[in-house]
Amino acid sequence: MANNRTFSPSLQAKIDTLMSRRPKVKLGDISFDSPLLLAPMSSICTAPYRLLMEELGAGGTVSELVSCHGINYKNEKTVKMLEIHPREKNIGLQLFGEDGTAMAEAAKVAQEREPKFIDINMGCPVRKVVSKGGGSALMKDTSKLGKYFNQMKSAIEVPLTIKIRTGWDDDSINAQEVIHIAKEEGVEFVAIHGRTRTQAYKGLANWDLLETIAQTSPLPIIGNGDLHSWQMTQKRLMATRCQALMLGRGPLRNPFIFLESFLKEDDDIQFTPSDYLEVIERFRDYLEEYTDRERTVLITLRKNIVWMAAGFPNVTHFRNAMFQTPDIEETMNVTREYFDAIKDGHKKIDHNQVFMAGGHG
Ligand SMILES: Cc1cc2nc3c(=O)[nH]c(=O)nc-3n(C[C@H](O)[C@H](O)[C@H](O)COP(=O)(O)O)c2cc1C
After folding, report:
1. Which of 9, 10, 237, 248 could join 39 via S-S bond, C-beta 3.0 to 4.6 A?
2. Which are the contacts of 352, defined by CB distance < 8 A and separation ≥ 6?
3. In the chain, where are the structural domains located?
4. Could you tell me which CATH class the domain 17-260 is placed in?
């Protein structure tokens, strides 16, 4: 990925202004450029998307979950998931697996890619992962956790972090216990999605609980869940006891959320449809540098364009037209036409409507 596409001076000026307002944070030994981080998302947080988000203000990013067994078997597709772009600065690679020995082995391999930290997925609710004892199932039997963490910690030199849920179900909320075990074993910070495993993506993230946990936690806490808009993020950022916040679905529909969260009341800064188009053009470049599989680029590009266009005028018509195009070039032509046509349009998203109620954490 050698491409060095530049943004227009007007977009770059907005980015620079908001970028400069971000406070740096240190979580344990790990420094980030902002307290707002991109959450790990499978099939989304590959190097091109993570780099784009860092350039648009994410203080740090985490890869999608990567199977420790896939790494240890040298599965080609899995190994590709470990790829880090040289310009990515604050990246963590997330691994999942039920077995401490296999995880430690895989973590050594992941470490060779020089991530800033290695993260353990302890929140995935998906049956395929949980039934083997990985993801959120790790929170079920805490008696094994000390050894599990220790095996990984002793295998690597980079910091070890974890991403958990609040517990398995309402009757077994045990995030605090897990955090204490993690602290004992030298884990650096804990990101918490404020739902239980049973809840999956239903209901709302329990921010009261996250704040209570953050208040007494012996480790830095990154709060996560339902921060869908920059207004929600800004409000939470001002009041939270968490040391940082993690955003997953929000950035998919608003790639400027990490920056807009630092808007001030009297600012005259708005990201326009043509700014969105520039971001899409850059993303296309990054995808094409990342893989020569045209189909992968096309599918990834389309999916992200649809998300980014959400809330703009006449989006349904545009979406239908785009999905009828045969290739990347045509997809981009239709996209350019659309964003040119709505150049004075505003984005309006109803955050009460459920968006992507499913994922691996
Ligand atoms: C499509 C999708 C994929 C996800 N994949 C992962 C993953 O690989 N690892 C992980 O820890 N969490 C994963 N998650 C969970 C998110 O990191 C985050 O905890 C969750 O979406 C709540 O945050 P949000 O409301 O800001 O989206 C995923 C979520 C979604 C929507």
Report:
1. 248
2. none
3. 17-260, 273-341
4. alpha beta
